[in-house]
Amino acid sequence: MKSRRLALASLAILLAFTVIAGVHPLATPAVAQEATKITVKVTDSGLDPETIEVEQGKLVEITFIWDHKAYPNEEHIMVLEGYNVESDKIDAQHKEATIKIVANKPGTFTFKCDLECDLHDFLQNGVLKVKTGSGGGGAALTKTKISIEPAAISIKDGKVTVNASLLDDKDQPIPKGDITFFINQSFAGRSGLVEIGEERTGPVGQARFVYEPTLTGTLKLTAKFEGMGIYDASELAVDIPASRAFQAEFGESVLPASGHSQELVELKDWAPAALISLIALIWAAFIFILYQAWRVSRVGDGGPGGDASA
Q1: Angle, CA of 267, 272 and 275, to the nearest 5°
Q2: Across the chain, which distance is largest between two alpha carbons, in Å?
Q3: d(C-alpha 77, C-alpha 60), whole Å
Q4: String of b and e for 203-235 (b: at least 16 CB within 10 Å)?
Q5: Annotated domain spans of the chain
Q6: Pairwise CA distance, residues 212 & 264, whole Å
Q7: 3-state class of 18 per DSSP?
Q8: SS3 call for 5
């Protein structure tokens, strides 16, 4: 009897463990995808190899190695088009630089030297081929964010200075990232983003942008990062309010009379009235021409003002 109870108890314990394990399976640590590592030598005769191939979705590290013999003063910055990424400079003192990408775009992409050098023409034909993969899960892009703190915005002498920071998902700075700046403008009843400039982040992941507005009021600014290498795209929209200091800089309705900015503001103010006046003038001229043509036709027909002896 005891043995039977013991067997039933063991079975119950085993069943309970199975249920718990089914509901809460043992967690397995995530394994990061191992990078596909490729080496490209930059030699006196060109790139070696000139063509490299990877599978779509792979994390890829391409290391460029300075390997000159007859050109000891050559310097190179290698860029990979289509992935918006460039290497650090390599030379006789710093012989290696590595770029990293998630090969999420299939196709053929050019890598080349972006500095003018003696061998420049021989270093323009590198090819990266990204082949369509087997359909398995690929490496994920690293999330990014743009940060523009209120303290990073200053207004002086009619110019707005914005310091934008580009950070990864661990708040680490991302250097060499291109941030494009837009403002929201309205014209003829329609509004949209207008590009006003682009800046690249420095070693601490910050881009400094200076803009001279042509209008007063709240400035709606959008900063966009299109992504590069292993980093995903991101954007941020901020409003720069028309504070008292801002209005004092710019005046109540127009900018101070300096350069072309004042002329542009004045042009916008009187342009609608000028357009209406021009249209009215054109119509008046058209009516006058019609009237003169009518008079000429009347004269030709012997009407009033014509030759009565005819």
Answers
A1: 100
A2: 149
A3: 18
A4: eebbbebeeebbbbeebebbbbbebbbbbbebe
A5: 36-131, 163-250
A6: 12
A7: helix
A8: helix
Which CATH fold topology does 163-250 show? Immunoglobulin-like (2.60.40)
What is the Cα–Cα distance from 71 to 75, expressed in whole angstroms?
A: 9
36-131 folds as Immunoglobulin-like (2.60.40)
Residue with tokens 């300075």: 66
Closest Cα to residue 69, out of 94, 43, 102, 101?
A: 43
- Per-residue model confidence as pLDDT tens for the chain (310 residues): 545 554 545 545 544 544 444 444 443 343 457 899 999 999 999 999 999 999 999 999 999 999 999 999 999 999 999 999 999 999 999 999 999 999 999 999 999 999 999 999 999 999 999 998 765 568 999 999 999 998 899 888 888 899 999 999 999 999 999 999 999 887 767 788 999 999 999 999 999 999 988 777 788 899 999 999 999 999 999 988 765 344 434 333 333 333 444 454 455 556 677 788 889 899 888 898 988 888 887 776 665 555 544 4
CB 179 within 8 A of CB 173: no
- The two three-digit tokens of residue 81, written as one number: 């088009």
Distance of CA 300 to the CA centre of its chain: 70
SS3 31: coil
Measured CA to CA, the distance from residue 260 to residue 130 in angstroms comes to 49
Helix (H) or strand (E) holding 253: none
The position carrying tokens 């005769």 is: 45
Judge residue 11's burial from the number of C-beta atoms within 10 Å of its C-beta, 0-12 exposed, 13-18 middle, 19 or more buried.
Answer: exposed
Q: State the Cα–Cα distance between residues 29 and 39, nearest whole angstrom.
A: 30
| Cα dihedral value 242, 245, 251, 252, nearest 10 | 50
Amino acid at 13: I
Query: Would the pTM count as exceeding 0.90?
Result: no
Handedness of CA 256, 261, 262, 268 (dihedral sign): negative
**What's the length of the chain?**
310
Helix, strand or coil, per DSSP, at residue 196 = strand
